[in-house]
What we know:
By secondary structure, this protein is of the alpha/beta class. The protein is 40% helix and 24% strand. The protein has one domain (6-255): Rossmann fold (3-Layer(aba) Sandwich). The chain is globular and about 55 Å long. The relative contact order is 0.17.
Amino acid sequence: xxxxxxxxxxxxxxxxxxxxxxxxxxxxxxxxxxxxxxxxxxxxxxxxxxxxxxxxxxxxxxxxxxxxxxxxxxxxxxxxxxxxxxxxxxxxxxxxxxxxxxxxxxxxxxxxxxxxxxxxxxxxxxxxxxxxxxxxxxxxxxxxxxxxxxxxxxxxxxxxxxxxxxxxxxxxxxxxxxxxxxxxxxxxxxxxxxxxxxxxxxxxxxxxxxxxxxxxxxxxxxxxxxxxxxxxxxxxxxxxxxxxxxxxxxxxxxxxxx
Length: 258
Ligand SMILES: C[S@@+](CC[C@H](N)C(=O)[O-])C[C@H]1O[C@@H](n2cnc3c(N)ncnc32)[C@H](O)[C@@H]1O
């Protein structure tokens, strides 16, 4: 398993946080008793759940010990736990609001997990998640093309089959409607204007490229990163010291029948 670096991930906290706020805006829960954030990461967004529902017991769950350590240090009002959301999904805890932001794409076959997730939500409660929908963009395809070439492929082949992935909004909408939910699903393409040296590399090396980069031995990783950055610079040209990164995201909000 690859590891996470909370500080690297938080480099673009504003850009990564906006979808969470826009997702939550469509959740109409008024006074939930229990709110769970699956794949809470460094917890900065979980803290917004406490602000939104101050009377709720808020739980943040993540499989990364590094992320949970950071979350506990910065947001003491939340019960943060190291756990795999797949284990939680088949457990017994019931919630009124279940949130998962930018996480389910990391869970292979996550569509099959939706019945278990819906079953964890109390009648009348809410399930809300957001996943990236940009896996056909150069920020991902360049990494995958490079990783498939020698001398990298022998190290990266095993992780490249488990890199993040997601579905079209209609796929999630139909899956949740089949489970009896009222569903609101949509997509948004953000145009992130990023500054600094190789900002797209900085972005992807905080998330989607981590498994590939960490699968490489040190000497090859340096070579890979140089070539990856060079190709990213060509795909996302610098204009007046800034780079535009289009980023499509998919939003799904379901209400379980009362
Ligand atoms: C891109 S980060 C999103 C963090 C946070 N939700 C946010 O929006 O900033 C993805 C998170 O999902 C977590 N994650 C991935 N697979 C998981 C799993 N099976 N169970 C729990 N957490 C998982 C990772 O450890 C990571 O912290």
